[in-house]
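Changelog note: in this version the structure field was regenerated for every chain. One regenerated record is shown below for reference.
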Amino acid sequence: MDIYEDLLCGDCKNFDPPFKQFLNTTHDGRPITDFIEVYFHPYILPIHINAFTMTQLTPYIWDLNHDGEVNAAFNEWAFEHQLEFKGPEGMAMSQYDVIDKTCHDTADRFGYTEAECLDVLRNGTYEQEIHKVQKYGTWYRVYTTPGVFLNGVMIEDIPETADAWTRFINRYLR
């Protein structure tokens, strides 16, 4: 299963908790994650002008920690702070303001210092990585977020609760 999320997307923020609750369920006494593999991909909607800068931390955090839970914690942080980056305050920010705020607010939470974060974002270390992921999502025909694909097929009617996810996936596990 491939999940495409935009850190500044309100629908992604709403999607995340029930989906993660579903990922902690079981099927036939075994963790559901024994039956499905889930890959989260960043995908930036053009309307979210500050998401590109923030999203560059996603591969950086992975390279530092190789721990999906740390990346998930960063996504949750971004979801909690969406309005600071996309509301009126966020719309008035320059890219440099976004870099400074993101690095200041996330320093020492996800495996890097403020100085290391500033270096990565100011130097554009992961810009090409994000461009590649964006192209991959476009090739896959992601047009909105969250974009959810099961075995390469987009799920049009995304389940909204953990129970609905369980019912949806159980059809494929019989």
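Spot check on this record: Residues 71 and 102 are 15 Å apart (CA to CA). DSSP finds ten helices and six strands in the chain.
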